[in-house]
């Protein structure tokens, strides 16, 4: 089936990204994997390519293209090569929407040029050690000083992707106690400078997968946050978080589809080269049937991913549609990658083969951005159940 989601500009960008990955990423990716993060300088290379500024208005140094399709191309190309760009996806997919939606003109002038240049990498700190999916249960507090010039931030966050390298972190904190009839009230968002006194990065977490993406614990002890770094209105943070979940879940859905597509490619290459009992693994009927079934599932996931992408770009992607796309595509990726690993035999269990890393990387897709169970709850609610 012919895809209609991408045009000539996107395909030209694909060629650029593919060449960049071959030259700058593939030769050193094993080193990054061992180190558990990309070098900070790598983000400056991405910035030079222009990938951070695609959706940023021209007045702040960006390209001013209001579309997620270039990001979609990057999902496909990184998965195809079996590599990742560290925490840079969080910078664009999670950081940028909050700046665009909530920042004042003065804040945009301060934040966006450095965002585009890679001078300031952004992350989002929502999850706490004891809260997980229950965002309203957060304990981190931000109290306004007596003279009204700054907030005093205290608390801790965990599972913060991009947290080691981040220069600014959007921190969710309680500025007021929850109301009896609305426990979501009282949360505010702050663009916190990570060089602030009292701000510290704790452990770089040892994860099952996504080894190249730095994920950290953060701690705040009497961190002074200027009132000029409050994002949006005080106490309305929960609604802001919900507003941007659709784009985040689209990103996970599209990334999962791209991973499934890559898994089929890796398996197809492997079974055509590997021989057993004097024949290639590809010549066995079971291999053909397994890969054919996987390809059919990938085709379906691609259609779901593309439809969600078009809806997102049109500003029409609903919470239920995003949840449906995430649920379906992450489940498809789970099944497909598992079956493709099986076709590798024992080598599929070795980290030197991209299918093994893909298997580990993929597992979190059904957890972060809202678990599969939360996705089902959202879909059921939209069905009136």
Automatic annotation (TrEMBL):
Q: In which pathway does this enzyme or protein participate?
A: Amino-acid degradation; L-valine degradation
Q: Which residues form the Acyl-CoA dehydrogenase/oxidase C-terminal domain?
A: 235-383
Provide the GO biological process annotations: branched-chain amino acid catabolic process
Q: Which UniProt keywords apply?
A: Branched-chain amino acid catabolism, FAD, Flavoprotein, Oxidoreductase
The cross-references to Gene3D superfamilies, in alphabetical order and at most eight, read: Acyl-CoA dehydrogenase/oxidase, N-terminal domain, Butyryl-CoA Dehydrogenase, subunit A, domain 2, Butyryl-CoA Dehydrogenase, subunit A, domain 3
Q: Which positions are tagged coiled coil?
A: none
**Which coenzyme or cofactor does it need?**
FAD
Under the heading PROSITE patterns, the entry gives: ACYL_COA_DH_2
Q: In what residue span(s) does the Acyl-CoA dehydrogenase/oxidase N-terminal domain sit?
A: 7-119
UniProt-listed InterPro entries? Acyl-CoA_DH_CS (IPR006089), Acyl-CoA_Oxase/DH_mid-dom (IPR006091), Acyl-CoA_Oxase/DH_mid-dom_sf (IPR046373), AcylCo_DH-like_C (IPR036250), AcylCo_DH/oxidase_C (IPR009075), AcylCoA_DH/ox_N (IPR013786), AcylCoA_DH/ox_N_sf (IPR037069), AcylCoA_DH/oxidase_NM_dom_sf (IPR009100)
What residue stretches are annotated with the Acyl-CoA oxidase/dehydrogenase middle domain? 123-223
Q: Which SUPFAM superfamilies match?
A: Acyl-CoA dehydrogenase C-terminal domain-like, Acyl-CoA dehydrogenase NM domain-like
Q: Which GO terms describe its molecular function?
A: acyl-CoA dehydrogenase activity; flavin adenine dinucleotide binding
Pfam families listed in its UniProt record: Acyl-CoA_dh_1 (PF00441), Acyl-CoA_dh_M (PF02770), Acyl-CoA_dh_N (PF02771)
PANTHER family from the UniProt entry: ACYL-COA DEHYDROGENASE (PTHR43884), ISOVALERYL-COA DEHYDROGENASE, MITOCHONDRIAL-RELATED (PTHR43884:SF12)
UniProt family annotation: Belongs to the acyl-CoA dehydrogenase family.
Q: What is this protein called?
A: Acyl-CoA dehydrogenase
Q: What organism, scientifically named, is this protein from?
A: Streptomyces natalensis ATCC 27448
């Amino acid at each position: 089936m012919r895809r209609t989601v991408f045009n000539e500009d996107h395909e030209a960008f694909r060629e650029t990204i593919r060449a960049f990955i071959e030259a700058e990423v593939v030769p050193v990716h094993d080193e990054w994997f061992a180190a558990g993060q990309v070098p900070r300088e790598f983000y400056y290379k991405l910035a030079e390519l222009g990938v951070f500024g695609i959706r940023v208005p021209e007045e702040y140094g960006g390209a001013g293209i209001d579309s997620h399709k270039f990001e979609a191309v990057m999902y496909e190309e990184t998965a195809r090569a079996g590599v990742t760009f560290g925490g840079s996806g969080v910078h664009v997919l999670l950081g940028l929407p909050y700046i665009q939606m909530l920042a004042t003109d003065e804040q945009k002038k301060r934040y966006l040029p450095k965002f585009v240049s890679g001078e300031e990498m952004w992350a989002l700190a929502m999850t706490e050690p004891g809260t997980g999916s229950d965002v309203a249960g957060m304990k981190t507090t931000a109290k306004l000083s007596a003279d009204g010039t700054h907030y005093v931030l205290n608390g801790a966050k965990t599972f913060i992707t991009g947290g080691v390298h981040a220069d600014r972190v959007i921190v969710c904190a309680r500025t007021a106690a929850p109301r009896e009839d609305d426990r979501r009230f009282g949360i505010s968002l702050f663009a916190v400078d990570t060089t602030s006194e009292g701000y510290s990065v704790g452990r770089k977490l040892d994860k099952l997968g996504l080894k190249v993406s730095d994920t950290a614990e953060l701690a705040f002890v009497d961190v002074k946050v200027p009132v000029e770094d409050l994002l949006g209105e005080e106490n309305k943070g929960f609604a802001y978080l919900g507003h941007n979940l659709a784009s985040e879940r689209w990103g996970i859905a599209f990334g999962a589809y791209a991973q499934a597509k890559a898994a089929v490619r890796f398996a197809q290459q492997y079974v055509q080269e590997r021989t057993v009992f004097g024949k290639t693994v590809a010549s066995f009927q079971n291999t053909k049937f397994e890969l054919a079934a996987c390809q059919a599932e990938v085709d379906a996931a691609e259609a779901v991913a593309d439809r969600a992408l078009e809806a997102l770009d049109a500003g029409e992607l609903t919470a239920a549609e995003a949840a449906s796309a995430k649920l379906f595509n992450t489940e498809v990726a789970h099944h497909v990658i598992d079956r493709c690993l099986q076709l590798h035999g024992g080598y599929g269990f070795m980290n030197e083969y991209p299918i093994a890393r893909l298997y580990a990387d993929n597992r979190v897709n059904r957890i972060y951005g809202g678990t599969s169970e939360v996705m089902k709850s959202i879909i059921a609610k939209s069905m009136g159940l």
